[in-house]
């Protein structure tokens, strides 16, 4: 990061949209918003955009919350309370609230910014970067802000390069050779290709950079238009494409990679299968996402826990883990783990066998359980002798089983079992 990029980052406020439920995660988001979902053994999804902002030199941050926000707010208060106003730093938690002549819920992504105009203007940032709070990636936002300034754009849109055949579920940019966006299409059947690369498309990451004054003037103008949907992707960006200068910023230009990462990493873990796979991938010998990179740390709330402990060494009752990640406070008591990821405080008991298990904090797996390819919600107590992952029909009748064969287990599902 050069000095000019650092200066621009200091003039920027990050506004993180963290109010979404993530309905395709089903029961996992019954009690928490998607950005508050656990990831990687000790983090939450929201920690990734927050860490990117801090590591990029941005010290003014607002987090807009809405759906089931208590878990998210509690995490932010516990893990992100180190900002100091005397150093021109701040983190504001911005729940949807009753406004004069307005409903209390945010009507859309753009409305979340509009309703907090007074908060943002109070800090007088020259630039604002709008971020989605529910993706896993590492990015130096200062480079994107620098691109925005250098290009003279009205808006700069962060984009990931995806195979054109897979871009039908995204908002896709048609751009020229200078990165100017010529067309913005939501979920096109025939996605436009990148210049000079017919097999690749540019899909929106939901990241936007604006000059702050320009953005609020634009929001006021768009609000007066009939049919305004209060959404960046559906209203604001297409409007700028037609009337101003919108520029695409490919993720590959500002993604952060350590020496152990071969390619740019970005994931939307919005389904049970995607969530399970992204977590299990971290147990690989050389994972695509390096969480051990001290040059770009993922900050989070770290509970005070004792080290993980492995006990018993008898045939059939040996506490061990292969190709697994085990967090602090875990006790692996006479059970075997293979390609598992255990969050803080998980306990596994004698003779249990776990393979491909994601166990969220303070789950407990009792004796003789055999679990394969499952996601266990926080605090769930797995009963003695439970077998999951061997009989698809039985699994589907008791738990939520995905198309790929991953079973989601929650405590209410366990409570309904007749064992």
TrEMBL record:
One of its GO terms (biological process) is glycogen biosynthetic process. Keywords: ATP-binding, Carbohydrate metabolism, Glycogen biosynthesis, Glycogen metabolism, Nucleotide-binding, Nucleotidyltransferase, Transferase. The keyword Transferase applies. Pfam families: Hexapep_GlmU, NTP_transferase. It is an enzyme of class 2 (transferase). Residues 14-283 form the Nucleotidyl transferase domain. It catalyses: alpha-D-glucose 1-phosphate + ATP + H(+) = ADP-alpha-D-glucose + diphosphate. GO terms for molecular function: ATP binding; glucose-1-phosphate adenylyltransferase activity. The record marks 66, 105 as: Could play a key role in the communication between the regulatory and the substrate sites. Pathway: Glycan biosynthesis; glycogen biosynthesis. Transmembrane segments: none annotated. Residues 306-409 form the Glucose-1-phosphate adenylyltransferase/Bifunctional protein GlmU-like C-terminal hexapeptide domain. Alpha-D-glucose 1-phosphate binds at residues 106, 171, 186-187, 204. InterPro entries: ADP-Glc_PPase, ADP_Glu_pyroP_CS, GlgC_bac, GlmU/GlgC-like_hexapep, NTP_transferase_dom, Nucleotide-diphossugar_trans, Trimer_LpxA-like_sf. Its EC number is 2.7.7.27. Belongs to the bacterial/plant glucose-1-phosphate adenylyltransferase family. Homotetramer. Involved in the biosynthesis of ADP-glucose, a building block required for the elongation reactions to produce glycogen. Catalyzes the reaction between ATP and alpha-D-glucose 1-phosphate (G1P) to produce pyrophosphate and ADP-Glc. This is Glucose-1-phosphate adenylyltransferase. It comes from Pararhodobacter oceanensis. The lineage of its organism: Bacteria, Pseudomonadati, Pseudomonadota, Alphaproteobacteria, Rhodobacterales. The gene is glgC.
């Amino acid at each position: 990061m050069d000095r000019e990029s650092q200066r621009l980052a200091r003039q920027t406020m990050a506004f993180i949209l963290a109010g979404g439920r993530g309905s395709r995660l089903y029961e996992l988001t019954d009690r928490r918003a998607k950005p508050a979902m656990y990831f990687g053994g000790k983090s939450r999804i929201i920690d990734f955009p927050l860490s990117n902002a801090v590591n990029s030199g941005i010290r003014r941050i607002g987090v807009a919350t809405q759906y089931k926000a208590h878990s998210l707010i509690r995490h932010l208060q516990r893990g992100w309370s180190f900002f100091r106003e005397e150093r021109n730093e701040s983190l504001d938690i911005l729940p949807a609230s009753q406004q004069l002549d307005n409903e209390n819920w945010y009507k859309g992504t753009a409305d979340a910014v509009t309703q907090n105009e007074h908060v943002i203007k109070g800090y007088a940032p020259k630039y604002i970067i709008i971020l989605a709070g529910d993706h896993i990636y590492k990015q130096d936002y200062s480079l994107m802000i620098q691109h925005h300034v250098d290009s003279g754009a009205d808006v700069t849109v962060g984009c990931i390069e995806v195979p054109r055949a897979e871009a039908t579920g995204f908002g896709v940019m048609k751009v020229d050779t200078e990165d100017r966006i010529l067309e913005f299409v939501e979920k096109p059947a025939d996605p436009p290709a990148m210049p000079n690369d017919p097999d690749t498309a540019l899909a929106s990451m939901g990241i936007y950079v604006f000059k702050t004054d320009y953005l609020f003037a634009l929001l006021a103008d768009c609000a007066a238009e009939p049919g305004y949907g209060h959404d960046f992707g559906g209203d604001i960006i297409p409007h700028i494409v037609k009337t101003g200068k919108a520029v695409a910023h490919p993720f590959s230009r500002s993604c952060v990679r350590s020496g152990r990462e071969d390619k740019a990493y970005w994931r939307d873990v919005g389904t049970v299968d995607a969530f399970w796979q992204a977590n299990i991938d971290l147990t690989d010998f050389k994972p695509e996402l390096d969480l051990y990179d001290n040059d770009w740390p993922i900050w989070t709330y770290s509970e005070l826990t004792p080290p993980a402990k492995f006990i018993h060494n008898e045939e059939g009752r040996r506490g061990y883990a292969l190709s697994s990640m085990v967090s602090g406070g875990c006790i692996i008591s006479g059970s075997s783990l293979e390609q598992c990821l255990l969050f803080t405080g998980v306990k596994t008991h004698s003779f249990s066998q776990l393979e491909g298990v994601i166990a969220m904090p303070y789950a407990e797996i009792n004796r003789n359980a055999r679990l394969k390819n499952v996601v266990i919600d926080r605090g769930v107590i797995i009963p003695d002798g439970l077998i999951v992952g061997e009989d698809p029909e039985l699994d589907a009748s008791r738990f939520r089983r995905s198309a790929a064969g991953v079973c989601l287990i929650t405590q209410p599902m366990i409570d309904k079992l007749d064992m």
